[in-house]
Specification:
The structure holds two protein chains of two kinds. Chain A is α/β, with parallel strands linked by helices. Chain A has ten helices and twelve strands. In chain A, helix 5 runs parallel beside helix 6. The longest helix of chain A has 18 residues. Chain B is of the alpha/beta class. The chains are: A alpha/beta, B alpha/beta. Chains A and B meet through helix 6, helix 7, helix 8 and helix 9 of A and helix 7, helix 8, helix 9, helix 10 and helix 11 of B.
């Protein structure tokens, strides 16, 4: 079985002052069948741009996207229509992504239009554990949790191979975070849908995802199985992100913030390794020579000259 | 004498109660956290102090004393004098705290109006304050527009604005929720430095236990408009006593390993009808008596107490 989504050498450039800097640079990534992949990074790392490029909401400058092994002929407008049937996007604020004038029934009918398959809005609601009684409601009459479920139901209309969730837990209480992630994991188990979870919430990613990809300035700097990455990160940036998660234990308070400074502007990419101005392990080589993504076996790869815990 | 003393404060939006007889004390230089889910009343409590509740809110009973002044007895002009000088706010989203049309330095000048300093002295004070909150190159940033700055920088500048009038209390409403984890850690560190350096008391509102544990001296857990547990952070996080606090801790993803798959949740939603404990419908320990009458406060030692009929301290 081929991977539901494969991205090769994807580059996205935007025009700006002083040229067209790359927001996503030669990014290669595949999502495996029924996999839950977490893409993490700070704001400005390019993770949301990646989602938008995958959905065809931003034009890519170069690269190739394939669905279930079949490459889209080009990245032109028309072929994205097919892609959108196979990759569903769940927005950060699902309740805000509904037309407030439409009832739930009409919202789901619109998503089902032209797809055939004979599925009904009530059947979609049942997949996310909601009662058909909600079909007559307008979005404002739904609770936050119900609105998130309806958004997932809408995403399921086309029976997608991949669900792309952009910050699915942002701003939610812990219990609501759990409900959202559990629902997506249930769908994965029941339907084999792969899930790509784009988020800066490492605590959730660490618990729910099979694999992690860490992004910095539009590139992947580390990927690997979640357990291995969380237990022994290879990239100093991954280590800093993990250390930054606030732990509800006053005995584990930090005396210093785990990383200084902020992610640089894409218009001023540092030379050499792009993380070197913030990295505690920077050497002369890091300032001049850009590291490549190196495969270290066991599904792990890192873009660093001297990865943590690896002998030089 | 405590800096802030809230006694038996009840607030309602129309017929819907938002706070029910809440009492909380903040000492000078103390960092106190209020943690709870959306709908718990934590923001209503924070906004009631500086008199910033929406027009639909009504204070039905209670007393708020700040530095000995009865805030609920003040008229609008009196409240305006207190805001900024004695109590300052830091809001959740720094992107919307500032006007997009005016350079940040000019916006910060407004916080110095009481001091009647001339423009050059004001600029010098603001540059110094920006440097104090960790803004690199403050001479240049002072003239920047908000869109030219990152969220983390803007939140630092919002904190600088709060500090300019040298308040005794800063109320920070979800100060890091809109920020990345890396920036969050830096802002929490900054808030602690401000307390240590200026002796400013800080009331932090958050839905994240991790944020509270990171910087607070004391914490109050709110549920359904009521404080259900209160105590020093070490004691409360070590031995959470209220079933709701225990459930929140059990849901905390930062405390879970990587082996699990499903995240724990607290089934049900905040509801507050009936006379009894508001958490009873979601509580695994509830018995009929919990729904019948108000739960009692139980001491758990060292200033740690909780509101529950069932659990033993």
């Amino acid at each position: 079985m081929s991977d539901p989504l494969t991205i090769e050498g994807l580059t996205v450039r935007v025009p700006g002052r002083g040229g067209k800097p790359a927001i996503i640079e030669a990014l290669t990534l595949s999502v495996r069948p029924a996999e839950v992949l977490g893409i993490v990074g700070e704001s400005g790392s390019g993770k949301t741009t990646l989602a938008r490029a995958i959905m065809g909401l931003i034009r890519a400058s170069a690269g190739r996207i394939a669905i279930e092994g079949e490459a889209l002929p080009d990245l032109a407008e028309r072929s994205f229509r097919r892609l959108r049937r196979h990759v569903a996007l769940i927005f950060q604020n699902p309740a805000g992504s509904f037309n407030p004038r439409l009832r739930v029934d009409a919202i789901l009918r619109e998503a089902l239009r032209g797809l055939g398959g004979g599925r009904s809005p009530a059947a979609l609601l049942a997949m996310v554990g909601l009662d058909a009684g909600l079909l007559d409601r307008h979005p404002h009459a739904l609770s936050g949790g119900q609105a998130r479920r309806v958004a997932i139901a809408r995403a399921l209309a086309a029976d997608p191979a991949v669900i792309l969730a952009d910050e699915p837990t942002a701003g939610l209480d812990v219990s609501a975070q759990g409900e959202m992630m559990n629902l997506m994991l249930d769908l994965r188990d029941a339907r084999g849908t792969a899930i790509v979870c784009i988020t800066h919430n490492l605590a959730v990613v660490r618990h729910c995802c099979d694999r992690i990809a860490v992004m910095y300035l539009g590139r992947i700097v580390e990927t690997g199985p979640t357990g291995a990455v969380a237990a022994a990160p290879l990239h100093p940036y991954t280590a800093a992100l993990l250390a930054a998660v606030p732990v509800p234990d006053p005995a584990r308070r930090r005396t210093e913030p785990p990383v200084r400074g902020e992610i640089p502007s894409l218009f001023a990419r540092p030379d050499g390794c792009e993380f070197h101005p913030r990295c505690p392990r920077t050497t002369a080589r890091c300032r001049t020579e850009r590291p490549a993504l190196r495969d270290l076996g066991e599904g792990r790869a890192v873009r660093c000259h001297s990865p943590l815990g690896v002998a030089a | 004498m405590s800096l802030l003393a809230i006694q038996g404060l009840s607030v309602a939006y129309g017929a819907q109660p938002a706070l029910e007889s809440v009492s909380l004390v903040v000492a000078r230089g103390e960092i106190v956290g209020i943690v709870g889910e959306s709908g718990s009343g934590k923001s209503t409590l924070a906004y009631a102090v500086p008199g910033l509740l929406p027009a639909a809110a009504r204070v039905t009973s209670g007393r708020i004393a700040l530095d000995g002044v009865d805030l609920l007895g003040l008229d609008d002009a009196g409240l305006a004098r207190i805001r900024g000088s004695t109590v300052a706010m830091v809001f959740q989203d720094p992107m919307t705290s500032f006007s997009p049309l005016v350079p940040v330095g000019r916006q910060l000048q407004a916080f110095l109006w009481r001091e009647r300093v001339d423009a050059r002295a004001a600029r010098r004070r603001i540059v110094e304050m920006l440097a104090d909150v960790g803004i690199a190159d403050p001479e240049r940033r002072i003239d920047a527009y908000p869109h030219e700055l990152s969220g983390g920088m803007l939140q630092r500048i919002a904190i600088a604005a709060a500090l300019l009038a040298r308040p005794s209390l800063i109320i920070a409403d979800e100060p890091t929720t809109a920020l990345d984890v890396t920036t969050e850690a830096q802002i929490l560190h900054l808030l602690r430095e401000i307390r240590d350096g200026h002796g400013t008391a800080i009331l932090v509102i958050s839905h994240q236990l991790g944020v509270i544990a990171e910087i607070c001296d004391r914490v109050a857990v709110m549920y359904g408009g009521v404080i259900v547990e209160e105590g020093p952070v070490e004691a409360l996080f070590r031995h959470p006593a209220h079933p709701y606090t225990q459930a929140l801790m059990a849901c905390e993803p930062a405390l879970l390993g990587t082996d699990g798959r499903r995240l724990p949740t607290i089934p049900g939603a905040i509801a507050r009808d009936g006379a009894g404990c508001h958490f009873a419908d979601r509580c695994t320990h509830a018995e009929p008596a919990c729904r019948a009458g108000s739960p009692p406060w139980q001491p758990a030692g060292d200033g740690h107490a909780f509101l529950c009929r069932r659990m033993a301290a």
